[in-house]
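Need a sequence for this fold. Nothing fancy.
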């Protein structure tokens, strides 16, 4: 079950990245970590609908999620390295063109990927809804941390439910 949730959430994050880079470039201003976070409970709901009524002995046997742990480690390391080397930038100093990629002018001509394109920044702030009210835009660190925490919480709760449930 953890594997399904992991891959569903990761594919949802890739979908959000594709939307930011290509599909919604005319109007999206930031990589939306709110949507990435919401993909995880959607995947959890799908898992619960599919497996929710199974008896514990009917659930498939599982081995440690090595591929998923390796994938998470590689992705988190790449993101941390990108932020540390400033190739991934969360807050632009000037407006960034659609797509989020900018090659700096100068000797190094470094290609940088901006997670948001507007000044002032949108992350970690309230934004006005087009319909009514306001909503909070998660910054990348909070969005990733909450998604990981939600996945761990789901895994712990499912394990507890399987151990408590009688045959």
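Here you go.
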């Amino acid at each position: 079950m953890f594997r399904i949730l992991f891959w569903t959430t990761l594919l949802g994050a890739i979908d959000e990245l594709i939307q930011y880079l290509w599909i919604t470039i005319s109007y999206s201003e930031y990589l939306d970590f709110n949507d990435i976070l919401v993909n995880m409970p959607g995947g959890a709901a799908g898992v619960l609908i599919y497996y929710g009524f199974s008896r514990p002995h009917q659930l498939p046997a599982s081995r440690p999620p090595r591929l998923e742990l390796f994938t998470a480690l590689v992705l988190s390391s790449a993101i941390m390295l990108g932020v540390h080397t400033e190739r991934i930038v969360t807050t632009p100093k000037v407006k960034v063109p659609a797509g989020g990629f900018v090659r700096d002018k100068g000797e190094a001509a470094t290609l940088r990927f901006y997670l948001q394109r507007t000044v002032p920044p949108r992350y970690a702030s309230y934004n006005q809804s087009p319909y009514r009210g306001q909503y909070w835009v998660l910054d990348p660190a909070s969005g990733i941390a909450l998604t990981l925490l939600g996945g761990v919480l789901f895994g712990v709760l499912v394990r507890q439910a399987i151990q408590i449930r009688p045959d």
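For context: The radius of gyration is 19 Å.
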